[in-house]
Amino acid sequence: MSKIEEVKALVEAGKSKKIAAAVQEALDAGDKAQDILDAMVASMSVVGDKFSAGEIFVPEMLIAAKSMSKGVEVLKPVMAGDTSNSLGTCIMGTVAGDLHDIGKNLVVMMLESAGFDMIDLGVDVPAEKFVEAIKENKNVVLVACSGLLTTTMPALKEAVQTVKAAFPDMKVIVGGAPVTPEYAAEIGADGYAPDAGSAAVKAKELVA
Amino acid sequence: MLTPRQNLMETIKGGNPDRFVNQYEYLDIIMEASIMIGDMPMFPGNMGKDAWGVTWNWPEGQLGGFPMHDDEHKVLKDITEWKKYLKKPIIPTADEVWAPAIAHAKAVDRNEKFVTTFFAPGLFEMMHHLMGMEDALMNFYEEPEAMHELIDYIVDYELEFAKIVIDKIHPDALFHHDDWGSQISTFLAPKMFEEFFLPGYKKLYGFYKANGVELIVHHSDSFAATLVPYMIEMDMDIWQGVMNTNNIPELIAEYGGKISFMGGLHSGEIDFPEWTPEICAEYVEKACKTNGKKYYIPCLTSGLPMSSFPGVYEEVTRQIDKMSKELF
Fold first, then answer.
1. Cβ contacts (< 8 Å) between B273 and chain A: which residues?
2. Which residue in chain B has the smallest CA separation from A66?
3. For A89-207, which CATH superfamily applies?
4. What range(s) does the Uroporphyrinogen decarboxylase (URO-D) domain occupy (chain B) (predicted)?
5. Hey, are the CB atoms on B134 and A151 less than 8 Å from each other?
6. Rounded to the nearest 5°, which phi and psi values hold at A92?
7. Hey, is the C-beta of B59 within 8 angstroms of any chain A C-beta?
8. Alpha carbons B257 and A203: distance in angstroms, whole number
9. What pLDDT was estimated at residue A83?
10. Whole-number Å distance between alpha carbons of B239 and B304
11. Contact (CB<8Å) A59/B186
12. Out of B138, B184, B272, whose CB is closest to A62?
């Protein structure tokens, strides 16, 4: 197995304690940082697909994301200043009145692993805060809004519409247990994803 | 006419119930025996610590409280050091503490209803309350030995409580909470659930059953269809909170007679600010007609006999009575 394949396998298996050494070995063996990063992104894409298909569960996805993040730490000094691999910035938050963060955190990890620079606004985020965050951050290409409760679905609608009113061309993706593709379309969102794995796929599609 | 208790037994044994078991009617939950909640907030606008030191925040306008896991509040920051930070709460045994629970239990006609002890949170929930969901889920892989030790420690605590509550109120039923999944999936792979949680639950539910508790009702308002074989193995009689994402008719066809299913009425679809009696009627009719009369108990997925919005629980009860008249 080549060093880069080893890195790929370690991310997919979520071996966070071994990944840093493996990435370093790949660099030492002459593999390019960008190729190593691409391999890890590809691994996370496999992980996301397996999660969406119900073949793996949240723990497996978390340890894979943690491994990738540790691998990226090793690459960072080598790739400093190189932003060509970024898909752009994504602002994410759970909408006003909703304090659920597990699903949102998973999406943040998966989008980060897919190549987005993530700005996590946390939970109970008022609609205007999404707009402020777009203004305050560079290269924002996507806003992701999460809501778990039936009672906070109006807040999801408000968030999408407030963002669209201020930035009509901004892509917005929504998700959460009560959200359906029909509801997402009805409130003017550009995309919907039922889980964190497909959120990464849909997000890449929206900004392509 | 059968008593609620008799009707429940007919339903879960596949006998001849004379009506639908109506939500929680067969359980008389002795909430006075839930003496280990500490200062956990029971109403919005409050914050407090439970008996294990987990800080809970229930902000105004929310449907429930949330355990806090920022650096200041997380109880276990490093699972490998759990013994340093965690002490089992002491369970009081003094008569005066238990007097209200004992009086309530004595007042129940046990031919009518099951005297029921309530326990929450369960083993899985304790893990993420103490260390946060992400840490808990990763620790099953990264620190499995420490996780096993901690689960065993919490099982011991639950057994201590079980011994005392059995001695004090002689419950006929246990109503135990532990949410094992989201609406569409379990949190853990079934094999991981089997490794970490099946042994503890076998011990716990086995102990209750060996000491006079006839009925084990477990709440998990989630998908958990893939865990049903383990539920049966741990001697659970009724899975309360079962959501339609589990395909209840299929579960009944496969497992009816070994376990029964209570739920099918999603709180999120029925119990919300703009609820109407018509919405309740529509969902109740669908649930009763789809899931049938045996091994199924129509019930909101809520983990207690109540609704978040006034009147919903009672309206659902009325609609189930209506369906009983129509279908029995």
1. 151
2. B138
3. Cobalamin-binding domain (3.40.50.280)
4. 111-309
5. no
6. -130, 145
7. yes
8. 46
9. 63
10. 13
11. no
12. B138
Pairwise CA distance, residues A95 & A113, whole Å = 23
pLDDT (0 to 100) of residue B62: 81
Confidence class for position B181, pLDDT limits 50, 70, 90: very high
- Cα separation values, B36 from A22, A168, A174, B306, Å: 48, 53, 39, 21
- Mean pLDDT, residues B195-222 taken together: 98
Set of chain A residues whose Cβ sits within 8 Å of the Cβ of B61: 97
Asked if A60's CB is within 8 angstroms of B182's CB, the reply is no
Burial B43-63 (b: 16+ CB within 10 A, else e): eeeeebbbbbbbbbbbeeebb
Interchain contact, B185 vs A103, CB within 8 Å: no
> Which residues of chain A are in CATH 3.40.50.280 domains?
89-207
Of the candidates A54, A102, A195, the beta carbon closest to that of B133 is on: A102
From the number of C-beta atoms within 10 Å of its C-beta (0-12, 13-18, 19+), residue B187 rates as buried
> What is the 3-state secondary structure of A172-204?
EEEECCCCCHHHHHHCCCCEECCCHHHHHHHHH
Q: What is the pLDDT of residues A57-105, one digit of tens each?
A: 999 999 999 999 899 999 988 887 666 678 999 999 999 988 888 889 8
CA angle A22/A28/A32 to nearest 5° reads 90
pLDDT at A100: 86
Q: What is the pTM of this model?
A: 0.92
For A3-79, CATH gives 1.10.1240.10
* Interface check B314 vs A, CB under 8 A: no
> Closest Cα partner for A177 from A127, A95, A103?
A103
Domains and CATH numbers, chain B: 4-34+73-327 (3.20.20.210)
Is the CB of residue B327 less than 8 Å away from at least one CB of chain A? Answer: no
Residues B136 and B76: their CA atoms lie apart, in Å, by 10
* Cα B206 to the center of its chain, rounded Å: 17
Residues of chain A with CATH 1.10.1240.10: 3-79
Residues in A touching B133 (Cβ below 8 Å): 102
Residues of chain A with pLDDT under 70: 81-84
Q: Which two tokens stand for residue B200?
A: 């503890």
Q: Which residues 113-172 in chain B show a CB within 8 A of chain A? A: 133-134, 137-138, 140-142
B189 touching chain A per CB within 8 A? yes
The confidence score (pLDDT) of residue A206 equals 96
Q: What is the ipTM of this complex?
A: 0.92
